[in-house]
Amino acid sequence: xxxxAGLSGYVGVSTAVAxxxxxxxxxxxxxxxxxxxxxxxxxxxxxxxxxxxxxxxGYKDGAPQGLGVTTAVSLVLAESASxxxxxxxxxxxxxxxxxxxxxxxxxxxYDFQGTASLTVPTG
Length: 123
Prior knowledge:
Shape: elongated
CATH class: Mainly Beta
Strand order of the largest sheet: 2-1-5-6-7-4-3
Strand content: over 45%
CATH architecture: Beta Barrel
Number of strands: 7
Helix content: under 10%
Radius of gyration: 18 Å
Number of helices: 0
Low-confidence stretches: none
């Protein structure tokens, strides 16, 4: 199976966000227990509500993204520019974390919370 390096991945909020060098995504579903007397002591489950959230971070390059507590943004998380592996959906920017120190580059980290469905890559 081929491998993909994240060297040319990106994060887009309407357009590509400059300076970003890392993103992570948590895509989960609640598992609802449906164990009844017929289960013979073995737990049974069905999928419930799914949700997604994550972070992206990097160096300051231009104006930072705004906190999106009232407006959802169209978010695209790409694994590589050369492969069609893209996760996308509407999300709120729920946290902004600027960092700096005397001998380093100014950095920004962002938290996001997805709303509605997440389009997942295939293949």
